[in-house]
């Protein structure tokens, strides 16, 4: 039987993985996944269908990170009330185009994102005050993907084991496309 076990590392600040899958529901809404840990095992996780439609994957990611900010700040306040010093909460993101936008707010908006509501730049204020920071996380290490989309078996198993703090390999198997030309013979390609 597999079950969640937590290992808290006193030197580790909470790390948040936030991801959004763009337009994955029949009503064209996106889906958000969030995982938080302070060592090994997920102390907090959620999987949520968004309540509003977005125009791009960047916008979907911005809405996702804005929606999780209340939990991020509550966790920071809770740890501070327990006597723990939490300098900065780290939020990991796999969308590189969104990171400058959340750090700089409307100044980093382009013609594709200038329509975004100012309420989604709440995080910019928290970044400027040093309470949170947003850092890039490669897609194959984004634990929040576990809650947003179907995964290949090896990646699913690796992420499940990381979330539950079960023994696992050091890194997930890198996905190879079934369309990789080197995997097919000419006979297969003719069919």
Care to give the gist of this entry?
This protein has 191 residues and is α/β, with parallel strands linked by helices. Helices cover 29% and strands 18% of the residues.
Write the layout of secondary structure elements.
Elements: E1 7-8, E2 15-21, E3 31-37, E4 39-40, E5 44-49, H1 57-81, E6 89-93, H2 98-104, H3 122-128, E7 132-136, H4 153-164, H5 186-190
Helix pairs in contact: 2-3
Question: How would you characterize this protein structure?
Answer:
This protein has 191 residues and is an alpha/beta fold. It has one domain: Ribonuclease H-like superfamily/Ribonuclease H (Nucleotidyltransferase, domain 5). The protein has five helices and seven strands; from the N terminus they run βββββαβααβαα. It has a five-stranded mixed sheet. It has a two-stranded antiparallel sheet with strand order 1-4. Helix 2 packs across helix 3 (122-128). The longest helix is centred in the middle third of the chain and has 25 residues, at 57-81. The protein is globular, with a radius of gyration of 19 Å. It starts with 6 loop residues before the first strand and ends with a helix. 30% of the residues are buried. The model is unreliable at 175-191 (pLDDT under 50).
